[in-house]
Write a structure and sequence with these properties.
This protein is an alpha/beta fold. The chain has twelve helices and seven strands. About 25% of the residues are buried.
């Protein structure tokens, strides 16, 4: 692990930071993947939960001199970090008024990283109240999402856990499919992509890419290909009946009845569910 980490620029910057900080080891490769394209760009980067400020120095070095690094914390002492060139706000990430005031002062931002209190209300509030204020091409990143499965202190798993909230957003962005015929809300209009890593969830924001989907044909020759997605069940049953009774060859009326039954959606669903139940049982062991 150490050998791999030492190759990552952001990990080395973390180790050299003049102030103390704690991060999980797998985060650094994720940081490299999602943040590299923003390096040396004129961006506003916000981190919630700065504590001693060690990570702020890491971000300052990583993103470069054109980036404005902003910290948010509950502890008033964090304000002392402003002498190093950071902008620090003191307030609660679960407070709508705090976010209203924050965005009134800062305007649109590019990246917001939530490493704050990690409670469901705190994480969800950060995404919900920040979403309208993220620039196209920006991201909202929430860390320590594994706490959605921790009971002590965080009261999870819960119907209202952050991970369940994120799963709900997956459902919402599918509203852009014309097959569903659903009205688009703010989430469907703003969140282009959701990425799940171990203990990190990333929301990519881009209003221009969040349009209603539509089916498009090319100019290739149509050979009249037939959809065989349901025929597999008929063939499988036919072979079994032939082997045991020979009925499928001897009695055409019986073959027609079976085919008619199999071409009903509820029959496909029943047959599919037998196999799906087995797979779901295996992955939840």
């Amino acid at each position: 692990m150490n050998r791999r980490l030492k190759k990552l620029k952001i990990f080395n910057l973390f180790k050299k930071s003049k102030k103390f900080s704690i991060k999980w080891s797998n985060y650094f490769q994720i940081y490299e993947k999602i943040f590299s394209k923003y390096r040396n760009k004129k961006i506003k980067f916000v981190e919630i939960g700065v504590a001693n400020g060690g990570s702020l120095f890491m971000w300052q070095k990583f993103f470069g001199k054109n980036a404005k690094i902003i910290g948010i914390d509950l502890n008033p002492k964090a304000k002392q970090l402003e002498k190093y060139g950071f902008k620090i706000y003191i307030g609660s990430q679960s407070d709508k008024k705090f976010w209203d005031d924050f965005y009134k002062k800062e305007g649109k931002i590019d990246l917001i990283l939530d490493d704050g209190g990690h409670k469901n209300l705190q994480q969800i509030s950060t995404v919900h109240y920040s979403l309208p204020h993220i620039k196209d091409g920006g991201k909202i990143i929430v860390e320590d999402t594994s706490l959605s499965y921790v009971k002590k202190e965080f009261n999870n798993p819960s119907k209202y856990s952050f991970i369940n909230y994120a799963k709900n957003i997956i459902d919402i962005i599918h509203r852009r499919s014309p097959l569903l015929n659903r009205k688009l809300n703010l989430y469907a209009k703003k969140i282009y992509l959701v990425e799940f890593f171990e203990s990190i969830v990333v929301f990519s924001i881009d209003n221009k890419k969040c349009f209603f989907n539509k089916e498009i044909n090319n100019d290739g020759k149509n050979d009249g290909a037939i959809d065989y997605r349901h025929n597999e069940y008929f063939k499988e049953l036919k072979n079994k009946m032939d082997q045991k009774y020979g009925l499928m060859h001897k009695r055409s009326f019986f073959r027609k009845i079976i085919r008619k039954l199999l071409y009903r959606n509820f029959m496909f669903n029943v047959l599919d569910n037998f196999k799906l139940k087995k797979i779901f049982k295996e992955i939840n062991k």
